[in-house]
Amino acid sequence: MDGYIGEIKMFSGDFVPKGWMLCNGEELAITKYVPLYSIIGNVYGGNGSTVFNLPDFCGRVAVGLGIISVPGDIGKYNLGEKNGNNETRLMPSNIPELRGGFVDGTKFSIPCAADGGAFNPIGKVIGGNGDASIFSGIPTGTLEPFDLNKAISGDHLVVVNNRNGHIEPLSIMQPGLVIFYIICVNGLYPDRGE
């Protein structure tokens, strides 16, 4: 399979064609791959005198060289630079505020539980000996729904917080398809453009 030395392709086979190598970051001797070294040099690693590395596409995707502007930041992608992560941790500092208002007709419930504690009025009431209970016991049953005639308006801040203090990793890995990235190590030497 002919190609230009230093050319990188995706290959769907389960083998690496003759004259090509996997883009797996492998360290190579400069003396054995002089034409390839003259094209990629130490951009992907090496010591500059005896060895250099192939690009490493294991678990990575290609990103174009250049400057990219994203909201709040300007990033520069340099040749051979590795970047990105498979996961991140959401911190309170990078979670935006969530604001919302109540809408007419909003329904909500307020849970109420019976205390169930003993009532002891001895010495705390006027008249009588305090032996009789004025309650018949713990309430049973439920209240019928009723309207609460209270207007609620304005902005209300909703705070999202992990009360346990644990910050769990969140996967941000994009969907992908595993395939060979291969580089031509024995082929046509590319002419430099003007």
From TrEMBL:
Domain Phage tail collar: 6-61
Pfam family, one: Collar
InterPro entries reported in the protein's UniProt record: Phage_tail_collar_dom, Phage_tail_collar_dom_sf
Species this chain originates from: Flavobacterium restrictum
Protein name: Phage tail collar domain-containing protein
